[in-house]
Fold:
Amino acid sequence: MQNSVGLPGTLLTHTIAGARLEGAIRAASVAFFVALTATAAQVSIPLPFTPVPLTLQPMVVLLGGTVLGARLGMSAQILYLLLGIVGLPVFAASPVLPQGALRLLGPTGGYLMSYPFAAFVAGWFAERGLDRRYLTSLLAMACGLAVIFFGGVMWLAFFARPAVGLDAALRTGLYPFVPVDIFKLLVAAAVTPGLWKLLGSNR
Structure:
């Protein structure tokens, strides 16, 4: 199944093509990943040596991009951020970091603001069929994860309140998370190829 511009398409476009309520299904799918991102934020493990908690959010962001595609995946994360900005408790619970718009100015703001771009990148690759095989799905998600790490570390180093400098940002915002996130990536990258096989699209 190809989309309107001749690309292979995503899981979402494949499953709803020709559906009577296609627009409603797209909106519901976006809302689902907004809720899933907010839920994943609550699975948060604070670490004593960094203000950045360990959460499941990055994997949900990347899965949202690969399932929904670039534009809808990005839209889901923009909507998630807007809900957080207006004060809904969708960001990770923290005894020191506030909910609301001020969260984006703090040490985790760069990671959060990178979510729409990471979802777009993962979705862009998925629209070209890279989510249908494990290794290419892993590549698509790794590129999205790199966007999150880059945005998060750069913000923590130079723009957060307080900014800590590049060396400290790498030590507290990148190195401790790489092993765990690689493991999560290895698991998450198997999801979309498995769903494609379930749908019988590889026959």
